[in-house]
Amino acid sequence: MNAPSRKSVLLAHGALLGVALIYGSSFLIAKAAMQGAVPPRAFIQFRVTGAALLFWLLTPLSGGHSFFKIPLNDRLRLAICAVFGVTTNMLFFFEGLKITTPVNASIMMVSGPIMVLIAGAVLVKERITPPKVIGIFLGALGAFWLIYSGANFQLNGLFSSQVAKGNLFVLVNASSYAIYLVLVKPLMAKYNALFIIRWVFTFGVFFVLPFGGPQFQDIQWSLWDANIIGAVIFVILGTTFLTYLGNIIALKTLHPATVGAYIYLQPLLASLLSLVYGGEQWSIHMLIGGMAIFAGVYFVSFYGRKFKA
Prior knowledge:
By secondary structure, this protein is mainly alpha-helical.
């Protein structure tokens, strides 16, 4: 396999930086849109349906695969990927984001690489080394600290406190997406990535409908101004459609570990934007929980690993 050109490497890193900027912004933008105007599950229906339509527009670029001609097992795997990568993932993220803070949500999302490791060990029997066990422990400790501090250090508040419940929902979101990444990897090796994403989102539209459809009647259309409309468009076009395309561009050139490393920019970007525009303040508990999660991710993803120049 030929080494990638400098131009393609720069393009890949530029795409990942764009993805990180979009995700970092989305924590604040999406939460602002859900403050009464758009219920979270209706927002998800907008997001999934809009992105699916955009991916269908790219059909000419997605190879010559026909859904009904691929093996039945692969079609079933696509549906399962939609359950974890779209339905469960997005439902818990938006429900969690509604009741927690953007910074807390972004910190919890950094546990993703740890969740990928655990999902890989369970689903495909990947080997877990002692440093990775340390990483899992530190990541779990950090996540628990954020949830526990969100409950004001009351055990009976773990599920009664809104912030604690929101943090827990975002953790479920990260776990679900990790399972999706493990399940979708074999499909990405067999088929065009745009073909895979198109059908994952197509299944997702129908899987989300029983949850998002009923909330359409709760949408406060009278509150829809330019900011709300812009937020919905941003989430559909930016947070969903462009981020998936950006990751596809990057994965063609860079190692998956490099692609995954860009997720660590999200808490920094979300924090800066929340401090400037959202009026949010950092707390020592966010710092403690965040440091534990980052340390865990280091042991899981980077400790003892040698990367090519």
